[in-house]
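S1.2 Input.
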Amino acid sequence: MRGNNVVGVLFSNVHDDKIRELTERRTIASVPFGGRYRLIDFPLSNMVNSGISKVGVVTKSNFQSLMDHLGSGKAWDLSRKRDGLFFLPPFGKQDQDIANSRIEALESIRHFLETSKEDYVLLSDCDIVCNIPYYDVIEAHIHNQADITAVYQHGIIPQHMSEPTVYSIEENGALRDMLIHPKIDGPCNYGLNMYVINRPLLIELIEDCVSRNMYNFNRDFIQRNMFQYRFYCYEFKGYSKVICSTQDYFQANMDLLNPDVRTQLFQPDKPIYTKVRDDMPAKYGLGSNVNQSLIADGCIIEGEVRNSILFRGVTVAKGAKLKNCVIMQDTSIGADCNLQNVITDKDVVIQDGRSFMGTDTYPVFISKGSIV
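S1.3 Output.
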């Protein structure tokens, strides 16, 4: 494992515009997921489990909840005197806008990259749920003497994925060709927006792109240079879900009800860490009925819950019926309510007798703090 020679960089705001319902008041990195986690917990835990002890989180806007969640990084063993967790807030020169692309974001943190002593940089978005052994990616990068290594998965391109990249790969893993946003219906090798890059080369390419006024990461940074350097690809064969829309978010939560998915995501030797909230165990009333659901600590269940995800501190009153729902933290469901295919944000109050019906492809969303 060579993670101690790698610095991690996480982009917390890259795809906020794709799920505006959930990112109106937060970054995509801090979107709650799976009953107790945030989306950033997955890539951050993957880095920590791979021995990476220095991680920079690139922020842009709406990052108060992200800072509150991550804190000093203690939950991820990143609260250290040396290295640890770094927040990299937006930096712009006079009369210039805040970074709107990965290249602009990397340019704004160039000082962080230049002062880092690690040989390699691991770049990742925060909108993907998976448990990936980054140390295998790093080892493959070093073994191949690669300049750039991209992580990909073989399968159907997610429907709402923003500007997907498709790789044509040699038998030894070297890149043969790369397409951006192609029209492909069947299985292919699509990128997961995770890269290991030699740190000096990354700084050099950032400077080159900025000097040429080129700011499209896939086209100007990757595709334009793919034959000038040793470019290899690493296949990830486990479960992954890219969160590109509210429907994707809903489906990713529903996937957690599948034991096989939970086994792949939550592994004893590669745990997913998160901020700890001390709370009492869930309480089930005498007339409650819960089936095929994930119930977090602090919940009080008096009604019926089926095939749903309930976050910490949710209250379900007597006579209420929930089916295929994602109910976020500290939400209160009134008596005799009927909810099906519904997502509620945090601190929602649904009054007695209300009924909301969505579909699995178009769930009903209720925004944070609403009283309905």
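S1.4 Remarks. The mean pLDDT is 91.
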